[in-house]
Amino acid sequence: MQLMRSDYTELTAHGRGYVTDLLKPDRTHDMLEAYGFAVTRSPAGTVSTEDAHREMAAIRADFGLREPYAPLLYRDRDAPLVTEVTRKAGSDHPAFHTGAAQGWHTDGLLEDIGTIRTTLLYCVRPAHGGGRTFLLNAGRVFDELRTEDPEAAEVLLRGTILGRRSTIPGAVREAVGPVFAELGDGHYATRYGEGQVERWYPKDAVEQKSLARALGYFRARRDDPDVRIDLLLQAGQCLIFRNDVLAHGRENFTDDPRCPRLLLRSLHTDAPGRTS
Ligand SMILES: [Fe+2]
């Protein structure tokens, strides 16, 4: 999966994006296959929350995605399968319900690498200010690292290098796994992240140094527009992306309390494909 600057057309923000119409699924499918993400646009422009749920169901059907997946972290919490991502006073979720920036991560904190293959983010209302979503072609950065510093890259493939720990009160759990895994088609599955939840487990001083080089490499590369896209979703737009191959994050945002930012999110264990 290559992200090439010259291929991006319509801009939705300062970064580069590509918005396709809901009614032109072929372009959306092509975009997803080539880049691992696409943005659809509701023909209506603005939508109600009910419309958004309906349109998400239509998008799922269009891409042949099964019903949303309930992540392990929320299994016992009676959470809806399509989650409202919005600021909520009193919520105990450390990332969902604040306006703070969210560091690089992949969805599915406790799942094995590659389990959650697709994330849908539907924008009902954008923030008053900020709130861009960032996507990083992590597999490509890793591929480059493998060429430039194979020893550093090797550490990220080791099966016990990265623990991700839930910080929700009452649900302190940790899942350990690799940062990258080969998918066999030249691409890599990833659970790359650098934020509050990661615990790194180098096995010795040599590996510690290799790990530091690997993470430093990612820090140096991840602002490069060749491998990174910033999208500001507008009302009625839905971002579909391959959570198993791209890392993502979010810019901080401010709300107008009368119409706070509201996104709907669903997670899927299958990848979007053509249904016809
Ligand atoms: Fe996320």
From TrEMBL:
* Gene3D superfamilies for the chain: Clavaminate synthase-like
- Matching Pfam families, A to Z? TauD
Claim: GTP-binding is one of the keywords in the record: no
Q: Which cofactor does it need?
A: Fe(2+)
* Segments forming domain TauD/TfdA-like: 27-265
A single GO BP term for this record reads:
antibiotic biosynthetic process
Q: What are the alphabetically sorted keywords of the record? A: Antibiotic biosynthesis, Dioxygenase, Iron, Oxidoreductase
Give the Gene Ontology MF terms in alphabetical order: dioxygenase activity
**Protein name in UniProt:** Taurine catabolism dioxygenase TauD, TfdA family
| Lineage summary | Bacteria, Bacillati, Actinomycetota, Actinomycetes, Kitasatosporales
